[in-house]
């Protein structure tokens, strides 16, 4: 959700922070603000609305010390924030940064401070003027108090500010990232994290703090990941990391393997269109080096680093995920049970730890998350580990929390995904889950021709996805023609059911449609009451060759729908002529095995949702009310 940028160095902090906030707009937000050191004062401007509103305010009333005043030096220390409202509406007062009563200390915050009400009462009793409705402002007042309390203790400058932040963190409950500056300490910013992302960017004579590496990728690709319950004191030439208790802590430095151009639109009208087009490469990158297409064999064992005995002795697999990642998990269940002959459950991570799930030392838990910071999935992961389960993460983001807290990780290689609604991350999650299922099958049952043929089919997925993308103009035309509709239903069987759910989710996210996905076999158990004349119903049809029984069943479903006057939009593989007479609109897919079909069937539904939303005038990159990474429960 919210975006954080901090900078200390020789450049104009205001310019660097604003540029970083622009790169974080994709996360979703409803207000923005900046604070920079100007001489021995903190200058702060914050506005409700988009970043353009903040930029206009800065032009109309330039900050003291900013380049806009013409003095040229700009101010070399600053922090900025894009807020997604939780406590209190999106107003100028509730926007970040928040200042203490003296105006010399500024703080930005991501996450939820669960005990803020009690802390606010304490502050009010001491005479503090807490002006906003947020949980975040209490951190600014507490930091000023703790900083003052350290006067005369021998700690000064950065160590004093970091010590004050550690004392604040020990008082806070919940999930939070905090970044702060103080007018007394001109060349330092400090940050802290618990259950919410924060990364350090290490440049030449300058340094950055951000909630996402994309904020500083223009300046450096060298990053430092912070661990749980750590505070970092950032100078232009160094970063000092400690635990909340003050003990020294190590932090891993790594190199970001993509550059700024990867997060640009590259001529496309939206990031979503670009990311849909990037899917053949993203799928190929996720497969790269993990299977031999000629032999149909996998090479995942060394990468995962899990003892094969753990996989052989596992009694069940539990997939935990949210939203789109949950739909990838539903495909994973089918693959694990087919190829590994191992029971598999798929759980909504947001519900997992609240229902006393039965997991233990012989359970393999697979946590699927694009960002690696999804709070619901992280909390579920921790609950599973407390029960002794082995946890494997499927994730797109190097250095994020979920992989670090797992026993093993299988990275997808989608690259940066800027659009809030997931496309290429979904396909690469599918690929990673299918690779994992094949690996489990090989470890538990030994190599077989079935597994080798599945691996060979999976290796052809990049070409299959590219073939689908080359035939999407009729889908776009169809979407434009349905932009006036208000409801679309999706049906699927077997691996087509998760695709139907994902197709409906994309329409909800992008077009603000009422859209529902159903298992086609459930049609006659209630949903058929929704069928009415000219209602668009999208049906994912399994292969008449490799899933003949399922194919016959779903053709019967389509006939039931048409008999009631609905408009049938059918996704069927090349060569399937049996379904053609019952399709008002026929979208052809490459002929692939049933468990591979979601990789090609999801693509037309992404294109359909994107085009329909665009026709309705919606912003497909930043849908309303949604954030890219939901880092609070």
TrEMBL record:
Its EC number is 2.6.1.16. GO terms for biological process: carbohydrate metabolic process; fructose 6-phosphate metabolic process; protein N-linked glycosylation; UDP-N-acetylglucosamine metabolic process. InterPro entries: GATase_2_dom, GFAT, GFAT_N, GlmS/AgaS_SIS, GlmS/FrlB_SIS, Ntn_hydrolases_N, SIS_dom, SIS_dom_sf. Residues 306-447, 478-623 form the SIS domain. One of its GO terms (cellular component) is cytosol. Coiled coil: none annotated. Residues 62-97 are annotated as: Disordered. It is found in: Cytoplasm. The keyword Kinase does not apply. It catalyses: D-fructose 6-phosphate + L-glutamine = D-glucosamine 6-phosphate + L-glutamate. Signal peptide: none annotated. Residues 2-237 form the Glutamine amidotransferase type-2 domain. The keyword Amino-acid biosynthesis does not apply. Its main location: cytoplasm. Catalyzes the first step in hexosamine metabolism, converting fructose-6P into glucosamine-6P using glutamine as a nitrogen source. This is Glutamine--fructose-6-phosphate aminotransferase [isomerizing]. It comes from Streptomyces albidoflavus. The lineage of its organism: Bacteria, Bacillati, Actinomycetota, Actinomycetes, Kitasatosporales. The gene is glmS_1.
